[in-house]
Here is the input.
Amino acid sequence: MKRFMTTAAIAAVTFLIAAGISFAGGQKEPGAAPSTGPVKFTFWHLDTATNQKAYWQGLADAYMKAHPNVSIEITVLENEAFKSKVATLMQSGSPPDLFRSWGGGVMDEYAKAGLLRDITKFVKGTAWGKTMAPGVIAVYSYDGKQYGMPYDMGAVTFWYNKELLAKAGYTSFPTTWSDFLTMVTKLKTTGVTPISIAEGDKWPGMFWWAYLAMRIGGKPAFDNVLSGQGKFTDPPFVQAGQKLVDLTKLGSFEEGFLGANQGAGAALVGNGKAAMELMGQWGPTTEAQNAVNKKGIGDLLGTAPFPVVEGGAGAGTDVLGGGNGYAVGKNAPDAAVDFLRFVTDEKNNATLAATGTIVPTAIGADSGLQDPLMKMVKGIVDKAGYFQLYLDQYYTPAVGSAINDNVQQIFAGTMTPAQAAAAIQQTYEMNQ
Amino acid sequence: MAYESSIVLSRTVKKRRRATLFTLLLLIGPAFIVFTLFVIVPVLQAAEYSLFRWNGLGPLTHFYGLRNFGFLLRDIIFQKALLHNMLIIVFSLLVELPLALLLAMIVGRGKFKLAVFFRTFFFLPFVLSEVITGVLWQFIYNPQYGLINSIISFFSPGNPGIAPLGSPTGVFWAILIVIIWKYFGLHMTIYIAGLQGIPVELEEAARIDGASNAQVIRHIVLPLLATTIQITVFFSIIGSFQIFDIVWAMGRGDPVNGAETMVTYLYKFGFQRFNMGYGSSVAVAIFVICLVFSIVYQRLLLREQRG
Amino acid sequence: MTTSVESARSRIVGATFKYAVSLIVTLIVAIPLYISVSGGFKTLGQLQAQPLNLPMPFVASQYTELLAGKVGSFWRDLGNSTLVAALTVALDLVLCAAAAFALARIRFRLSGLIYNYFLIGLLFPLAVAILPLYLQLRNLGLVNGYWGVVLPQVAFQVPWNIVLLRGFFKSIPRDLEDATAIDGYGPIGFFYFMVLPLSTPILATAGILALVASWNNFFLPLLVFNDSSKFTLPMGVMDFMGQHGASWNQILAFLTLAMIPAVILFILAQKYIVAGLTSGAVKG
Here is the structure.
């Protein structure tokens, strides 16, 4: 406790000096007493839903109660506003102390520019570092150094309506791509929208392309691009695009899918109008939020992994996924890092897991997982030999945007799979 | 008497001129400072950034010369965006402004009952924020149960309907309709103001001489309205080059850049892709286009007035 | 010479045409607004099935919850929007009236140059200068403060207001100025005692245009305000949409409430707008 107080005091003084230099008169700090100096840090997240907002506020309040000299200033913004706001702050050189991050390429850009605080010493070889699987922690590291920590890491899976599938004659979800296509055709004959894709947001479509490329080319396809031995114009990526064309031609998607956003897409499933969506672990939550009955389809919901592509090099256990975590800004005081540890510890992680909105990262926190579907997702994550972070987070922002944009073109039919792949490769090379 | 007062006048005139420098600084200074600090300086900095390849983080290190501009001119998506801006201008000039003028002539003058009500009401959409307008029309265009699709399914049940904002080709026209809806009232109001400046006697005199309505409009109203029309044309064109909020609120220019404009392009390919140097070059390009247009426009007007 | 019967007929045709066109346009303007207002009173089910019908059952809870502050942040956003707009308009009018007056009535060599300098601002939208502007605000310590939004808004309004006001000020007769000069007032006295009182309509116009611009501004407050307690109405709308996804009846209720202040203000002020534009500024 004493060591913590000294650290906090040093952090407070350092923070004040840093604040004084980088913000001309912006921060209002009470005079810092030498040993128990007040510490303030900022905490940014994007969970605008009332109960989730309350959860984070509750955590902050609990921490502040236990550490009376700490003051946590929370900023909540909705998704798109959050992304542009954080981007601006980064570009102006003054990052928030703790902010929601998905790791990967975007976080790497910030780390490369020296905007994040290196917290390796708090994580490597410490008790904190042992609370999660190494692969999961690695998502928030760059170049061997740690810049944040996750509290949620899940997989993208199918979320489907068991009743609607049964009406088409399916009691279990297909495990191969050709079976899957057959099912889609049968679903169409029953008059329901087979797949809700919400491609207006672009990243849902990217999920499909990524999984198909993973199933066809496996991990080597992606490794080759990184090493330069391969390109996005290689067969696995182009064939993945071709399968998307096939899927679109079947009329699998909802009316106006190219302009639909995630909320609208989730509403279709939640209202029982669409048979399935390929979505991350937040799928059930958004479906419930946006459904007319505010509850979604309840027991009728099932989850299943992405089917295998016959003859493909990828394994059915390969997972595309991601989660949520917080990155640490370069000016963050030690108290902020400690709060992050508090957020990700087993007890709090389990509490959040119990709400069924996340797949917890802390080992042992899955005891808090009550939802059987979420347990299934966690099982899928645990079994993954190859875990691929969402492509638009994994690569740099420019390449990520290029992937999202060009995959949308494939769905719209305005580019062939080969053209889209070439455009992505071109952006990739330009940003090397 | 006249001689004495004119001496007094010239003396006070001289006294007025001497106080001028301090007066000028006092009067113009504050506006000048605020304007320079928050408009001109950032604009000049944007010009500086446009010469670099910069992701916005850290110092400016990678000098790029004019290469950003080279990419810009060759990018088909930027060309598409520019085309969209041009189309917005064309339709504003061919549809929106004439409509506004017509309405101004209907409700802007004389003995038309409820004219004042109509005038006020037509101006309303302009007052609403772009965000509110964009969200509202998203609902109207909703493919599942928006107004448009409800009407379609009313007349032809079972028809899957349309999805304007989800169509790569349709989204532009859907947004153009909203732009016209929102701004026609502004132009109409300006025309009404201009019309009220035309002396009624001129029109009455022409009518007594036997002129028909159409002739009155062509030979009296329009010429006297010329300056007003020139002004609305100018602002309409400049505004069309800079259009952003409403396009952004209705799908950010997508799907597949179907409604992309130069400023949405700037945001997406500059800002969001961490390509601040490139984004700044788009900003400079927009500025140059507007500047060239202004100069050409003014020259054209001056030449017309002389001729 | 037209007979009275023919001219009567053409008058009726003319009148019918005018009323028909006006009615159609009124419907086109009114229907979206009606949908927003009525949609807020419907259940989500009815909204999805019958957007045009009157609300049945009539559900007031969406509106009452918003007004009571139980859902969303309407009053907080309204307060912030009002504060920012009031500061913007006040500062804007003071600065621009002064500068426009000087440019219109005082003859000095740089007058034309300075006027054109201000005009350049017309060619730049805010979106374009946003990053360097943000850095500027940070260096001046204005981020997350109301002045960080007010000052740039005033700055970007300057060109428009100067054009508008200068045109009007130029049209004030010289005799008035000479009259005050004889009474011993310099230009500032003329400005304060004579010009300002005469300019109420045009100042009202300029003020209202500045008010509308400030009220509806979205991106600048988004970038400047970190603290959600300072959010303005457009930010509140987007935030609400993000929270309530496909609950369109709630969203429409919020939209309607957000529209009301602007509409009320407009109805009260609209006679000034027309009067102001008539008074010669537009003839430019």
Remarks:
- The mean pLDDT of chain A is 87.
- The CA atoms of residues 320 and 388 of chain A lie 5 Å apart.
- The first strand of chain A starts at residue 39 and ends at 45.
- The longest helix of chain A spans residues 203-227.
